[in-house]
Structures are given as C-alpha cells and as structure tokens.
C-alpha cells in the first residue's frame, strides 16, 4: 500500500495550497480531507469543496522535493489535522505509509503518528476538462484586475449571476465587470488575443470565491494558463491547478449605466478622501444606518455624518478642483471607501449627475475613459431629489 | 465649560492606557466611558470597570504635551469611540470643548465631531487610599514574576481566592504563589526590604486580572510604586495609576505540597519538550479529553497520546538525563506546555514521585531550590496507581 518519503517543507507548502479548497464545514466527510495520490512520477494532492477544487503536483524528478515513492497508492487524510501536523514535525523529511484499514503512519525524526484515513475511492472524480478555448494571462495583471472589481461582487445568493465577475475576452482586450446592483466595478485592459479566439469574444461568469482563492495561489511573475469548457474553468499556475464551476445565466448589459454627461465634478486625492471617510465611519459604526453626506458648492466641499445616539461629524475636504452645479448627495461610506481603495493612491475624479443618480469614480488622469471605474448608487434621504 | 487643546498623539496614547480598564460590557453606562477632568495643572483621564481603575495624568508643565487648558471642567465620553476617533484625526493637535447638555466638540485639522457626553458627576468616586505600607519594585522584575505564576491562576469563581496571585513580601524576598488546585506556580526572588516593613511579612492576594492589566502598562525600565490598604492596592508607574481591589479570604499553605523526595527525575530541554507536546496536541485537539502519557524506563523516554477519532502519536524524546524508578504518568498537555514556557528556554528537571502524585518542574541549574517551580497534578488513567 502507498508509501513515500518527501521533503517536509515542500510537502507542507503544497498541503497549505490545496487545503484552501478543502472545507471543514461540508457535510460530505471525504471533502474534509485531502486526497493524496502517489504515482510513479510523483504525488498529486487534491482538496475540494465541490465547487472549487485545487490540485498540486509534487514531481519525483525534482531533487529539491527529496521524493522517493516506495509504493504507489492513495489515501484521504483530514485536511486541517494533516496540515498542522506536517508543519510541526521535527525532521527534514517525512514518511507516509498506509497500512491496513486506511490507517496511515506518518513518521519524521523520532515522531510517529498513526492517523485514521478514509477510502480514496470515495473521493469525488474531477470533471474531464475538454476545453473549447485555451489562453494565457500574466499573473500580476489578472490579480490586479480581480482586486479592482471583486469588491462589487454580491454575497447575496438571490441573483447567483451577481456573485461572480463577468469576464469578456476579445481580440484586443480583457474586460471585467462586477455589480451587486448597488454599485458596479469595471476594468478594461489591453491584452494580446490568444491564437484561437475568433470574432466572438469569450464570455465567462466566474464565481467571486474562486477568484479570491486563485489570487492567493498566483505569484506576480507567473503566467496563468486558462482552459474553458461550457460550465467549467481551469486555471493552471506552475504545478497547481484550480478548477471552478462557471455561473449560469445572462449577465445584464451594464454599459447603459455609464455616461459622460455629468453635471458636477470633484477632483480629489483618493488617499485623503479615504482618511476622511474612515473618520466619518468611526461615528457611524454604532449607528443603525450608515449614511455620509457630501455637499459641494462654489466655495467648499464638506463631508458630514450624523448618528442620533453618538453625535455628528463634519469635515471640509482638501480638494484638487470642483466644477458644475452645487450638489448635496448621500451614500454608504463603506462603498465609497472600498471603491477608492482600488485606485491605489491615485488622484480621482468623481462625476455626479443629480443626488438621485449613480455617480462614477475614475482616475483623474484618464477621466473620460471607462477603462477603470467604480459606480455607486446614492442613498435617497428626506429632502434629496 | 471645559476646553483644552492637546498634542493628539500624546492624548491618544493616554486614552489607550485608561481604556484598558473601561468596560464595554458593563451595565453601568458611565463605566463605558472615560472621565476627562481638566484642572489648572493638567488633564486626568480615568477608566474603570468597578474592580480595576486606571488613571493617567497629562501635565500642562511638559511642553511635549502641547497642552493648553482654556477652561477647567470635566466630561465622560464613550471609551472605544473616543479612542478610535482620536487615533484617526488628521491634525497634530486636537481641541475638546464641552458645550451645553454635555455635548462635546472635538476638532482637529478640518474635522469637527460633536459627541454626546455624560454628566461627570455620575462617575463613581475612587476610594481614598490611606496606605499602611508603601514600597517599590522594579518593573521588569515584577513583570517577570507575574508571568511565571499567572498561568496557574484560576478562572473559576467558585473559590475566589484562587483567582488571584498570593504575594508575600518579607524583609529579604518577594514570594508569589498561584494555584487553581490542579497545578501550582511559585516564584521567590530576593528583594531588598522597603524601609517600613516590620517583622511581619506583607501578605496580599491580588486579582489575576489586575496583574494582567498592570503588565501591559509597565515598561521594563520603570519602578512600580505600590501602596497597600486593607482591601485596596495602588500601583503607580510614571504618570499612570492602577487601583485594584484585593481578594478577601485565606490563601492555603501550599508549602506541604513541595517535597524533594522524588523517586524519578528527568532532565530535558524545555524547548524540545514544548515542541513534542505541541505535536501531541495536534492529534488531541479534536478529541474530548486531552491526555498525554510519558513513559520512562532505563533505555528511553517516550511521549504518547491517543484519540479514538483521529489516531495516535508516539515520540521518543531527546533527553539530557534520567534516573530512578521506571514510571508511566499521564497529564494535561496544556498544563505542561504553559508551565514549560515559564522557563524561557532553560533546561529543566522534572521530579516525579508516583504516577498519582503531583510532579515538580524546576530549572536544572537550581534543581534543589523551590525558588522557581511549577507543579502539575497528573491525570489518573485506567491502570495507573
């Protein structure tokens, strides 16, 4: 039955990667575990919560892995137990050996554990990926555009399509859109078209959770190989593979929400506005409804907030410029704060129409383009139009 | 009504110190707040949860404090709100002004908050301290001996006297003892007697919680001035004062538990044994009763553990030496781990009698003294005597 010896640190790192997908909360016992498969060429580790699956392969060809497979085989071992155990063992190497009844002996230094394992045949089979399209995206770019849009992904399952990021890949660019119907994030970046994309863009709705996990396993200098089927997507990064379901359904056309016909503009440092919003939130933290008000007139721009229990807040903002009609508009400070953070310290332009229409935040540098934008729907307060 | 301007960073630090005593869980509304008293000489901040009170004084004589008191007075403001607000304000200085109805305007930079305060007359009065004894202990020493004994303080209120550390101060030394009836920690250090101690030692039972808070506000290079009354103790460190109740009742005489008549000894590196216990705990974490077994015979010393759900663990320990009768003894690994950590990496001697009698851990260097010791009561398992 399965037996191998491996470098403990390498094994530890690989377990931590696949353990991200294994769930401790699932009612399906085998999914609390990690499947370990020893073949003649190496060790394949699999963790899954049924919607996301992560695999990592440790090759016996790489000397650094110090991997010697004495006997091929497979086992399922509890994910969190195995991870914390391997990280605490004393030796440089660790040996795993499956004995009878899926009992697994783990030895390192003078330590020896015997763990109760599970039958590897009970582990769910991964879908065969028969991709209609295959392409490549640089890791640092994909992480960046995910970060800029994932903030607007909905956590509410009522409209499942909004729990994902809508991705469109055409011959010249990559477009991501996310919305929870109160706010919207959009990012368009130029991307050289992969060879086999035709005239029709590739359109995918990828679950936000899968992209959160993907971010954690991609390093900046790696490319991500992506394979797409009708209902599955596979991301390959180095020796690691992440499988995810795709969301079904149509993502609404959101382009009609975006307009350059603003009546009022405000230019401001995103960093300064974030600080002011953070101060306003201190006051509102204990209140029931979080609302912050922004008032612009010819002379000044004032941010204010009010909580019946706690008191009130008012701050005149340092701005870079403002133009257009006077305006008084109210909104959720959490939305504004997370939107501003995607600009990474840049100066931004906020483009308002009226107090009841959504407003746009774009980089001041490229204020007329929709390539990087955040949209926020205001809160109607008594007296606003 | 009260008005002053102060350096924001200094005010922030002082608030964080007194906020440690203010409780957000108390049913007494004023104790959720911090009392701010502005006098002609400075600002006195007070936080209290009724058993522990911390005061900090910011003097107007110290230029660094940038303190200008325009009008004397007092106010109570919500502790957590005030702390997080002051830490986020934009300016170098902050101005507080009480207006009507205990409304308090807090201004810094372009920010202005108005908070609902409470009537300062409603704040509980501190007891007058009329000490029968006053003495001084170096901060680093007191912190160290608290750390070495506080681990055995009971969290169970059934015997209140065990929720504190028993402190005896005589002419030549300071002795601390804590026990929760399953384990005991003792530390004796030489300490030059303060002037006004007579032949009778000073005996105090100080709540563990108060000493935990004290540890946080003492820096290593400061002396602690201590004043004692019959039921109160006051610790003064720099500009900060911590008042605590003393526990009533008699602490039992624990000296009869300590004996040098061991039948088996084990010398081992505390660091190595901590690692082995940590590994054993991984296996036991999900089990219901945490028990680890130590077996000594002529040839080797083995640590083992067993969990019906998870599996079992066995490790032969690297030891420095062992002597005496063979022994098999079981105990709570958490107790052993926290006891070993108090030795700060030193080699220790563990002194056993039988499998059913408490065992002692002492530094290997000074194995015959009781000046630094941890005692643990074993767990009787089927088959142990």
UniProtKB/TrEMBL annotation, chains A, B:
One of its GO terms (cellular component) is DNA polymerase III complex. One of its GO terms (biological process) is DNA strand elongation involved in DNA replication. It comes from the Bacteria. Residues 260-369 form the DNA polymerase III beta sliding clamp C-terminal domain. It is found in: Cytoplasm. Residues 2-127 form the DNA polymerase III beta sliding clamp N-terminal domain. This is Beta sliding clamp. It comes from Aerococcus suis. The lineage of its organism: Bacteria, Bacillati, Bacillota, Bacilli, Lactobacillales.
């Amino acid at each position: 039955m399965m037996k191998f010896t491996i470098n403990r640190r390498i094994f530890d790192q690989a377990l931590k990667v696949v353990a991200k997908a294994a769930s401790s909360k699932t009612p399906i016992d085998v999914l609390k575990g990690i499947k370990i498969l020893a073949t003649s060429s190496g060790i394949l580790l699999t963790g899954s919560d049924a919607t996301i699956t992560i695999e990592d392969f440790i090759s016996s060809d790489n000397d650094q892995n110090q991997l010697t497979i004495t006997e091929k085989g497979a086992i399922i071992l509890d994910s969190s137990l195995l991870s914390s155990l391997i990280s605490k063992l004393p030796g440089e190497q660790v040996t795993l050996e499956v004995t009878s009844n899926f009992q697994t002996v783990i030895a390192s230094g003078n330590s020896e554990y015997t763990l109760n394992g599970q039958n590897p045949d009970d582990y769910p089979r991964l879908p065969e990926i028969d991709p209609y399209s295959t392409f490549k995206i640089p890791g640092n770019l994909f992480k960046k555009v995910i970060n800029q849009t994932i903030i607007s992904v909905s956590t509410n399952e009522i409209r499942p399509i909004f729990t994902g990021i809508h991705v469109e890949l055409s011959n010249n660019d990559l477009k991501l859109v996310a919305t929870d119907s109160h706010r919207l994030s959009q990012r368009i970046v130029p991307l050289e078209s992969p060879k086999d994309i035709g005239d029709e863009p590739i359109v995918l709705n990828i679950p936000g959770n899968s992209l959160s996990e993907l971010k954690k396993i991609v390093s900046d200098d790696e490319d991500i190989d992506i394979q797409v089927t009708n209902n599955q997507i596979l991301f390959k990064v180095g020796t690691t593979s992440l499988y995810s379901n795709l969301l079904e359904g149509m993502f609404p056309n959101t382009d009609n929400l975006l307009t350059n016909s603003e009546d009022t503009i405000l230019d401001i440092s995103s960093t300064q506005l974030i600080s002011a919003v953070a101060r306003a939130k201190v006051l509102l933290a204990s209140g029931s409804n979080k609302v912050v008000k922004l008032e612009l007139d010819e002379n000044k721009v004032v941010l204010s907030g009010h909580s019946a229990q706690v008191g009130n807040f008012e701050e005149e903002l340092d701005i870079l410029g403002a133009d257009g009609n006077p305006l008084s508009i109210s909104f959720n400070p959490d939305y504004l704060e997370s939107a501003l953070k995607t600009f990474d310290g840049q100066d931004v332009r906020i483009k308002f129409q009226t107090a009841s229409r959504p407003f746009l935040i774009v980089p001041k540098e490229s204020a007329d383009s929709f390539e990087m934008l955040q949209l926020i729907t205001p809160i109607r307060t008594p007296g606003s139009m």
